């Protein structure tokens, strides 16, 4: 049985030390999954005009944020590298007609290591990042996932890390509980259940409060990587209820899995 693909909402860096509702559910998911030989993750905090694959022998934990509590800057996620898997990723992208190159110096940004702190807290599974295309295109992320989907059959776990809603102005200005976050998250879930890819691809014109939920869409686009990585049939999606942090960050996450997969924490 192949591994699922995942979309994980990493919210803000504070998720590292404030696991909330989602953190324990991710830990339970990591325990329920067949242990992968490697994790390949796409994060909006490493965007490049052309595709790059982290292939260094070691991966530095990057603290790419400012103004947060000191405890965050002391955290480390020393997951091993896997240069052979990185080469496999580059080859898979090339076969799909996507030009990609190795990057032997890039570390792991918080979009990668913060959710992994909860999913695999022992940091003992190789972690490879693929850069997110800097052009804001859902189709580009969908194709990227489709190109790597076959790796799931060989024990590679594919993850799109983003945030189901992501309005930093509301977050930093403490606007209080905002109903738009739950409304947008529920719309996405309904479209996933219906298998309505067309509506999702056109979410900015069809979803309620889309522009407020995502003033810019780089944190939503990894969802399309996870959908593409799921293959042809993603109608058996599981929703992991992550709640809404600080009133506007929906932490809902999704498991795109075989119909036989079950997890108590997934709806």
Automatic annotation (TrEMBL):
Its cofactor is Zn(2+). InterPro entries: Extradiol_dOase_DODA, Xdiol_dOase_suB. This is Dioxygenase. It comes from Denitromonas halophila. GO terms for molecular function: ferrous iron binding; oxidoreductase activity, acting on single donors with incorporation of molecular oxygen, incorporation of two atoms of oxygen; zinc ion binding. Belongs to the DODA-type extradiol aromatic ring-opening dioxygenase family. The keyword Transit peptide does not apply. Keywords: Dioxygenase, Metal-binding, Oxidoreductase, Zinc. Residues 34-233 form the Extradiol ring-cleavage dioxygenase class III enzyme subunit B domain.
């Amino acid at each position: 049985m192949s591994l699922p693909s995942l979309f994980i909402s990493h919210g803000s860096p504070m998720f590292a030390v404030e696991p909330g509702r989602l953190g324990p559910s991710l830990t339970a998911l990591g325990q329920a999954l067949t242990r992968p030989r490697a994790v390949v993750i796409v994060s909006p905090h490493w965007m490049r005009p052309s595709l790059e694959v982290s292939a260094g022998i070691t991966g530095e934990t990057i603290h790419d944020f400012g103004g947060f509590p000191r405890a965050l800057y002391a955290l480390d996620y020393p997951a091993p590298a896997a240069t052979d898997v990185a080469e496999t990723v580059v080859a898979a992208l090339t076969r799909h007609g996507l030009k990609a190159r190795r990057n032997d110096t890039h570390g792991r940004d918080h979009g990668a290591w913060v959710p992994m702190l909860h999913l695999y807290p022992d940091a003992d599974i190789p972690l490879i990042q693929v850069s997110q295309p800097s052009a804001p295109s859902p189709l580009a992320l969908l194709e990227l996932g489709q190109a790597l989907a076959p790796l799931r059959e060989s024990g590679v776990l594919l993850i799109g890390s983003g945030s189901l809603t992501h309005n930093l102005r509301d977050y930093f200005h403490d606007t209080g509980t905002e109903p738009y976050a739950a409304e947008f998250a529920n719309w996405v879930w309904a479209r996933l259940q219906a298998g309505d890819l067309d509506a999702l691809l056109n979410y900015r014109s069809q979803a309620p409060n889309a522009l407020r939920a995502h003033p810019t869409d780089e944190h939503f686009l990894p969802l399309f990587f996870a959908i593409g990585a799921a293959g042809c049939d993603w109608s058996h999606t599981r929703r992991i209820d992550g709640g809404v942090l600080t009133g506007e960050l929906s932490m809902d996450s999704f498991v795109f899995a075989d119909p036989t997969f079950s997890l108590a924490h997934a709806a």
